[in-house]
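Feature request, filed as a ticket because there's no other form

It would be nice if the structure record came with a short human-readable summary line next to the tokens. Right now we just get the raw output. Example of a typical job, pasted below so the devs can see what we mean:
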Amino acid sequence: MRQDTRLSRVLHVLIHMEKHEKPATSDAIAAMLQTNPVVVRRTMAGLRDAGYVTSEKGHGGGWVLARPLAEITLLDIHKALGNPDMFSIGLSGDNPACVIEQSVNVALADAMTEAQALLFARFGKITLADLARESFNRWAQSGHKPSAMEGF
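Raw output as currently delivered:
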């Protein structure tokens, strides 16, 4: 089963954008993510609608952050992406009258609901500024000097 990597990819882009000296074009973001600019525009439009980025049209235009990274959490971005499913585990519906299937589905649904609540609580505590700091710490430890243009 294919995993949904939109959250991690968008987080990556937003942290790069914070250090980027000019607006990031959909083409440049698409090249970084190895995807189509149309996919980038559709994804970024959701972030724009939620107030996390803005777009500038014309020559020299592109996407820019609308808020500081310290004001954006992982949970914010997850919601802006349309609340993608956190688990690929599905409940069986083949035989709804079967008491075993009912018991299994209740146990799985309860566990997934509890796990999702814990995960969302954690996502709500992690800001993009936290991720950026961790990135720069890793760069410092590796001896690599980050560039504002890296990735774009």
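Something like this underneath would help us a lot:
The CA atoms of residues 80 and 145 lie 31 Å apart.
The chain has one domain: 6-142.
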